[in-house]
């Protein structure tokens, strides 16, 4: 009974640490602000902004309800333990384990403090050198993130894909739509390494492949409108992927080049040139936002004497399928001996560890 009491007290302490008075006041104030905005007569004139507002309001309200529910359950558990004198402790242990999982989720979310952490994400995957092996590896990573999104009940949409000649993909970009998507996924950015027996080699030789993952936030509509149209050079071309006669015969794909920065983005999954331009503009706005953020961080690091150039060689995770099975994150040293589960989208332990760095 004493250990169960200690467990309940520990969980209450952890919950109060996440849901402290300052945080609750800040969230309550934001809820009031969003509710006031949603009551305005012209609120739904801009449906995109309105939907973003309502989703933020819904997420904050749900989080507040979760905190209240957890506190109530823990207090009830403490009272029941006192009344029962420790009887039925097995059932109590199981219930506390479930409550601990929910508190751990809140602790993870407490690390999300960036301006776009609560919003959607854009993931771009690029095959490294290595021909068909690297392109197949890029396709495997694409499936992994789509499966992760599915497990989270998030929406996912492919809006750019360049297929490999024999197998896999040269590159692909997907938009992940869900609360906290960018905050949870942003540290997946970097080089991912695969070691396995090659399925494309008759001798089944061991092969090492690399792919680069970019993670971008879906920035506010205002940020897209701030881009000077005169600084964008647009080119249209025929989409290279599958999609029927319209996709193949009409110049529906769009390539945008931002002249001041040299950033180039493409979109080609939609049949409409206008829709592809909108998707490309969304990626461009996100890349420009991260470029400014990178400049700010680099300036801070240079002032402190801490500067490290981002490069292709900065590996974040290694996936080994042969001669042994292991996935190791090189930043957190977290190891999984079940790479099949990881590649099937079970990324939560890695993501939670990454956020705490």
TrEMBL record:
<dbReference type="GO" id="GO:0016149">
    <property type="term" value="F:translation release factor activity, codon specific"/>
</dbReference>
<comment type="function">
    <text>Peptide chain release factor 2 directs the termination of translation in response to the peptide chain termination codons UGA and UAA.</text>
</comment>
<protein>
    <recommendedName>
        <fullName>Peptide chain release factor 2</fullName>
    </recommendedName>
</protein>
<keyword id="KW-0963">Cytoplasm</keyword>
<dbReference type="InterPro" id="IPR000352">
    <property type="entry name" value="Pep_chain_release_fac_I"/>
</dbReference>
<dbReference type="InterPro" id="IPR004374">
    <property type="entry name" value="PrfB"/>
</dbReference>
<keyword id="KW-0488">Methylation</keyword>
<keyword id="KW-0175">Coiled coil</keyword>
<comment type="similarity">
    <text>Belongs to the prokaryotic/mitochondrial release factor family.</text>
</comment>
<dbReference type="InterPro" id="IPR045853">
    <property type="entry name" value="Pep_chain_release_fac_I_sf"/>
</dbReference>
<dbReference type="Pfam" id="PF00472">
    <property type="entry name" value="RF-1"/>
</dbReference>
<dbReference type="Pfam" id="PF03462">
    <property type="entry name" value="PCRF"/>
</dbReference>
<feature type="coiled-coil region">
    <location>
        <begin position="50"/>
        <end position="109"/>
    </location>
</feature>
<dbReference type="InterPro" id="IPR005139">
    <property type="entry name" value="PCRF"/>
</dbReference>
<keyword id="KW-0648">Protein biosynthesis</keyword>
<feature type="modified residue" description="N5-methylglutamine">
    <location>
        <position position="245"/>
    </location>
</feature>
<dbReference type="GO" id="GO:0005737">
    <property type="term" value="C:cytoplasm"/>
</dbReference>
<feature type="domain" description="Peptide chain release factor">
    <location>
        <begin position="79"/>
        <end position="188"/>
    </location>
</feature>
